[in-house]
Amino acid sequence: MTETQISQPKISCKNLWKVFGPSPRHALSVVTDTMNKEEILDQTGHVIAIRNVSFDILEGEVFMIMGLSGSGKSTLARCLNGLIKPTRGQVLLDGIDLATMNEAELRMARRHKVSMVFQHFALFPHRSILENAAYGLELQGLDKGLRQKKAREVLDLVGLRGWENSYPDELSGGMQQRVGLARALALDPEILIMDEPFSALDPLIRRQMQDEFISLVAKVRKTIVFISHDLNEALKLGTKVAIMKDGEIVQLGTPEEIVSAPSNEYVAQFVCDVSHDKVLPVRSIMRKPELKLYASQKLRAALQVMEVKGIDQAFVVNSQDRLMGVIKADDISQALTRNCTTLDEITIERAPMVGPDQPIAEVTPLTAACDNTVAVVDGDEKLIGEVPRVVLLRALAGKENPHGTV
């Protein structure tokens, strides 16, 4: 595989415009950069639904498109799979322009490459849950036995094992939405476009579905475009977030970037009530470990360096830097009276630890449960940083700089 193939976006939008009205191309010819949506409507009689939008979505990303009603987010979603043709610009799937595809090729792309999950479940009331989940496979002409096998697998994946023979009216709203998701996943698409799939659900069920979605994403490893009008949902679920207003993307970035550095007053108003500790990752406030001791280290040398630094406890790691725990100066002093010589001869207390990408909010209960600084470890549990209690408290109070701390 070449370098170009590796870095090519899964989806790429280039200078995309969508104008609704009798003469969209003529309307575009009179539009200027300074004209807003209302002025364009007054002067041309046309509606600008998407205005010069460009972005790339990488394979495996959860790309959230967030905006209020009328912002253009759903129109944009339908341009991404060819349901709506743009007035100008390109939508590329794996480098292929949708505009160059004929109707047969577009149908094949929708059946095999891109699937959609809508806000309204659109389940067939006279079909069982298994039959609903297998419907797309039926359209593909798959053998009944094979499509039912695949449908059972995805129903199990979304937590509906045992409901295969039930009917939609026997399921709650959240369970019906799972069936819609299973129907899309059964096609094994490379790209999943979800148009406000949880917005019709009650708040409690919606939060539950969001949590389950996070777990599901880790299992299915799809490229996902998720449309939402809820900023908290966008920040919770997305790896990238695009905020739309009047057909334009006013800010595109990670949840951390959106919250910590809003691009304008419009975005700032959105994020002003967001709990930063639930969005910003631990890596934004972690410090380099003040002291890292090795298990093979001599007790007297370890105690001496702790005294020089003026600290009464330190993290202990093995020869591969994997965290073993935390040790107190008093424990070392007592071990010396027992004629111990190295740290690995004494009991090392287990240390509270978090990953660098976990939200800051998850550190709080750890510090409340013990007096220790919280260790930050990577996927192999190697020590890469720490969050002292005072740093956490400053972050929660909004006084800690969330950038460049390590």
Tell me the Rg in angstroms: 27 Å
Measured distance between first and last alpha carbons: 35 Å
Total count of domains: 2
Low-confidence stretches: 1-6
The tally of helices reads: 17
Arrangement of strands in the largest sheet: 6-7-8-3-9-10
Explained architecture:
- The protein is of the alpha/beta class.
- It is 36% helix and 21% strand.
- It has helices at 3-7, 24-30, 37-44, 73-80, 103-112, 129-133, 135-139, 144-157, 173-186, 203-220, 231-237, 255-260, 265-271, 299-309, 329-337, 364-369, 389-396, and strands at residues 11-20, 47-57, 62-66, 88-93, 96-97, 114-117, 191-195, 223-228, 240-245, 248-253, 292-294, 313-317, 323-328, 353-354, 374-377, 383-387.
- Strands 6-7-8-3-9-10 form a six-stranded mixed sheet, sandwiched between helices. Strands 2-1-4-5 form a four-stranded antiparallel sheet, sandwiched between helices.
- The longest helix has 18 residues, at 203-220.
- The model is unreliable at 1-6 (pLDDT under 50).
Task: Record keyword descriptors for this entry.
406 residues; globular; Rossmann fold; 16 strands; six-stranded mixed sheet; CBS-domain; disordered N terminus; 17 helices; four-stranded antiparallel sheet; 21% strand; alpha/beta
Short description, anyone?
The chain folds into two domains: 59-89 and 101-280, P-loop containing nucleotide triphosphate hydrolases (Rossmann fold); 283-396, CBS-domain (Roll), CATH 3.10.580.
